[in-house]
Amino acid sequence: MNAKKMLQAWLAGFVVMYIISIIWYLFIIGGYNEVQFAAVARAEPSMTLIIVGYLVLTFLMSYIYPIGFKGGAPLHEGLRFGVLLGLVISLPTALIYSGAYNMPLIANLIDAAYHTVEITIGATVMALIYGSAAAG
């Protein structure tokens, strides 16, 4: 594994996904989520936990991506990896949270769809950094 490319992919993925999350949660869906998740939301989000969560997610993505690399074009591979990983992470979580907590299913499914798109964009950025030699 190329440690330099992995570090570049990790940091680029983190920056891109974190910026996308700020735009999504503050400017696009913020008010909707505040209402839908009011029963379980913190008074103030823990930005430390959110940042650490994104660092862990993007590190794992940058580590796993070369393992699943199929040798295709980076754009195609990034999209494939991102959609698959996004669905694996977010769809079951949305269903589990809606079943375990008093959280509306539709709001969780919207969040799952958002995370799938976010992860797909992040994975595509990583794939473009890794290039066609990701498996090497």
Which stretches are poorly predicted, pLDDT < 50 over at least 5 residues?
none
What is the number of helical segments per DSSP (H or I, 4+ residues)? 5
**Counted beta strands:** 0
> How much helix, percentage-wise, in residues?
over 70%
Radius of gyration: 16 Å
Oligomer: single chain
Globular, elongated, flat, extended or rod-shaped: what is the shape? Answer: elongated
Overall pLDDT = 93
Please give the domain count: 1
H/E element sequence = HHHHH
The end-to-end distance, rounded to whole angstroms, is 6 Å
Please outline what is shown here:
By secondary structure, the chain is mainly alpha-helical.
Question: Could you describe the 3D structure shown?
Answer:
By secondary structure, the protein is mainly α. It has one domain. The chain contains five helices and no strands. Helix 1 packs across helix 3 and helix 4 packs antiparallel against helix 5. The chain is elongated and about 45 Å long. The protein starts with a helix and ends in a 6-residue tail after the last helix. The relative contact order is 0.20. The model has no long low-confidence stretch (mean pLDDT 93).
